[in-house]
Inverse folding.
């Protein structure tokens, strides 16, 4: 007994001595109005830019012309309003106020070629750099351009709106970062000098719609000019071309300045200029920032990390290229740890040289798929191509449509994924939805569309098990077959529907906290059992049960609440008492807290008052027996659509957000009522998509292609409506045929007689026509 106790003490001491992982928080995330600031001679351009930006943000444009005006202006404007002023109108106190209560954007004054004007060159840049973000506009003394053209030179209102949306985006958690730098994903290294050319924009649009590509690497070192104005303008052109992407929003951009010694084109000796360009990328609001941990000093790296935290949504990729020598696994491990420590990055990347395939394979073994922060490890050259196949996380790639590769040995996502399939690196997995009978589930269409979009070889189907004689008896033959199915090496995951959400739990190794609290499982995920010595129910995998219904409910309600205009009560109503109602109760309370949102005070309504009281007690809520006087901010109904449930009109006067979890029919009686009352609402099909997204991300370890999944669900829904209409028409035709069969015999005989007369008349006409034709032939022969 002494030895285990000593080991436990040593383990506790080791854990105590290890540095705790710091929770990174944003240093400054003001949510106040946008303030545009520029040169003294830039007033007309600023006013024009402010007006167009305010229109894009659906706000007002407000000018600050004198000192000490800013404080009063900020008190009387909304978050979507745009304030504009020249820097001479601001005092030191005003600058401090901007840092605390607004989103300041500096409008850099450049000439037509993107070069800073004289005042920008010689100004004290301390205050300008205090601004969180930066855009470019043309110099006011340019005689070639109008005021509107000068104001919109670097992107204009669209750049301002994009920066505001970026600034208000929530910072990603560690798990979300791991999805962005996900398994079997790539970032394509762009090799363009000019992003305004039509052919370049066409290539970018194609890349933005490829779900295998989760980011596009903007190689600043390959541009013709490093002038700040030109860099900002080229960034805007790239973003404009990537507006529509597989995400349903703008594609993610990675900003890179690669030095010559690190296999790039930027001069090694100009380290300060490199740091300035990286700071410019941060002020432009890029999604990823690649920083060279050995080229930049510790001071410069810390400053870039702090600036990224101030902006909140920018992720830092610490990178290092160990070139000119082969690198052992132990050396690669040490370099990765050093890179992570120096950069404090959200992800780290190590690039090495490979003299043989063994070197490439050695590099790939260091890239642990479950490491935090995520690791990207690869080898250059033809010998290093193997590392781009064996390594699966967020690898740099080229594309068939690019004019050249950015680094030796790069291959396209098509090549990499095909080789992974052929070599068994990514083996085809089987996924399914477990249900009592196939009632036309939309899950197969949704998940198969996602697998196709991501280039994954998996297949999603239907697994039917009867309600009686199925999993209710864990010793039955059906239960044993189900165990074998879960333990199969090709098993990838399972969606679970009613009535199996409770019955599958004895077949699982563990439950997540949400599944345990809700008391129901709708997702089964096998995880590698490499760190446990116990025998698992999933063979070589630990079977984990989770519930993603609450995530779908939270997503739908949160989106609907953003459209809501009624008074806030802080309460939410859940209708029903089954498994989905439990998920809804969890979503409105603990689920919202877990997402960083304020939980609701819970009200529960059900026909069986005792069940409503039991459910309310389980989640700290209150049961209500009468809805006539209830006012809430959100309503979640979990009653089947066929019940035609409606709320008392008084419940809808407050314009609550309404979600009906039933997706058959698409428009339930409750949704029709809510729409007529002007309430923001969400269909059950939207909840299906949102919970399916959470399932897919668990199974694949990457960001889900939501538009492809949503299109599959709603196209399936539209097809079912068409089929239902067609079936209705067929039923009408059959009924008409039966009516005709019951018609009187006399009427039928009359129709037959008319038909016979018609045939006789037709025969007579045919004979007459033949005779006439014969006569015509005879006359023609006589004439010849």
């Amino acid at each position: 007994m002494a030895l285990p106790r000593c080991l436990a003490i040593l383990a506790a001491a080791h854990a105590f001595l290890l540095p705790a992982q710091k929770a990174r928080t944003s240093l400054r995330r003001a949510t106040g109005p946008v303030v545009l600031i520029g040169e003294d001679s830039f007033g007309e351009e600023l006013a024009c830019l402010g007006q167009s930006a305010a229109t894009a943000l659906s706000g007002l444009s407000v000018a600050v012309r004198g000192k000490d005006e800013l404080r009063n202006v900020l008190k009387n404007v909304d978050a979507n309003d745009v304030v504009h002023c020249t820097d001479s109108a601001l005092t030191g106190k005003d600058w401090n106020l901007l840092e605390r209560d607004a989103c300041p954007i500096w409008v850099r004054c450049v000439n037509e070629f993107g070069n800073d004007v004289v005042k920008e060159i010689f100004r004290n840049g301390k205050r300008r750099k205090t601004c969180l973000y930066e855009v470019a506009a043309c110099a006011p003394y340019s005689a070639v351009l109008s005021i509107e053209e000068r104001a919109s030179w670097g992107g204009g209102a669209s750049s301002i709106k994009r920066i505001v949306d970026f600034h208000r985006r929530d910072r990603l958690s560690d798990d979300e970062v791991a999805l962005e730098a996900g398994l079997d994903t790539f970032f394509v290294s762009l090799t363009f000098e000019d992003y305004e050319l039509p052919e370049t924009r066409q290539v970018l649009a194609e890349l933005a719609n490829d779900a295998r590509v989760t980011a596009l690497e903007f190689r600043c070192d390959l541009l013709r000019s490093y002038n700040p104005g030109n860099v900002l303008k080229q960034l805007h052109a790239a973003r404009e071309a990537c507006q529509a992407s597989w995400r349903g929003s703008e594609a993610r951009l990675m900003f890179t300045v690669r030095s010559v010694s690190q296999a790039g084109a930027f001069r090694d000796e100009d380290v300060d200029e490199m740091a300035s360009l990286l700071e410019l990328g941060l002020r432009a609001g890029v999604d990823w920032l690649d920083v060279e941990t050995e080229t930049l000093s510790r001071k410069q790296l810390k400053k870039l990390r702090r600036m990224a935290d101030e902006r909140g949504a920018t992720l830092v990729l610490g990178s290092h290229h160990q070139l000119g020598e082969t690198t052992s696994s132990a050396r690669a491990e040490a370099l990765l740890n050093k890179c992570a420590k120096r950069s404090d990055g959200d992800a780290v990347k190590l690039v090495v040289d490979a003299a043989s395939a063994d070197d490439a394979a050695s590099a790939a073994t260091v890239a642990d798929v479950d490491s935090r922060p995520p690791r990207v490890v690869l080898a250059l050259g033809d010998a290093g191509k193997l590392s781009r196949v064996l390594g699966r996380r967020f690898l740099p790639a080229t594309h068939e449509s690019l004019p050249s590769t950015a680094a030796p040995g790069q291959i396209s996502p098509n090549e990499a994924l095909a080789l992974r399939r052929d070599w068994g690196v990514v083996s085809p997995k089987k996924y399914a939805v477990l249900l009592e009978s196939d009632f036309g589930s939309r899950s197969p269409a949704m998940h198969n569309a996602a697998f196709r979009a991501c280039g994954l070889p998996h297949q999603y189907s239907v697994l039917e098990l009867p309600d009686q004689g199925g999993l209710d008896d864990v010793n039955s033959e059906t239960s044993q077959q189900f165990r074998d199915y879960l333990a199969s090496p090709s098993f990838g995951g399972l969606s679970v529907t009613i009535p199996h959400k409770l019955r599958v739990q004895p077949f699982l190794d563990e439950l997540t906290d949400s599944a345990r609290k809700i008391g129901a499982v709708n997702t089964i995920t096998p995880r590698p059992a490499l760190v446990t010595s116990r025998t698992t129910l999933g063979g070589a995998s630990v079977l984990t049960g989770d519930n993603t219904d609450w995530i779908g409910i939270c997503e739908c309600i949160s989106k609907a609440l953003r459209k809501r205009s009624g008074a806030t009560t802080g309460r939410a109503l859940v209708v029903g008492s089954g498994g989905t109602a439990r998920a809804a109760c969890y979503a409105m309370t603990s689920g919202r807290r877990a997402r960083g949102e304020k939980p609701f005070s819970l009200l529960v309504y059900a026909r069986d008052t005792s069940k409503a009281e039991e459910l309310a007690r389980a989640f700290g809520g209150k049961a209500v027996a009468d809805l006539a006087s209830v006012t809430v901010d959100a309503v979640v109904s979990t009653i089947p659509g066929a019940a035609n449930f409606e709320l008392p009109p008084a419940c809808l006067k407050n314009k609550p957000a309404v979600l009906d979890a039933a997706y058959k029919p698409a428009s339930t009686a409750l949704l029709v009522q809510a729409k007529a009352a002007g309430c923001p609402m969400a269909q059950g099909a939207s909840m299906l998509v949102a919970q399916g997204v959470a399932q897919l991300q668990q199974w694949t370890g990457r960001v889900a292609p939501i538009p492809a999944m949503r299109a599959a669900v709603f196209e399936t829904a539209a097809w079912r409506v068409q089929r239902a209409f067609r079936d209705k028409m067929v039923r009408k035709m059959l009924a008409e045929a039966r009516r005709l069969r019951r018609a009187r015999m006399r009427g039928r005989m009359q129709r037959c007689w008319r038909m016979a007369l018609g045939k006789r008349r037709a025969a007579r006409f045919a004979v007459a026509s033949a005779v006439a034709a014969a006569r015509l032939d005879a006359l023609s022969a006589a004439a010849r």
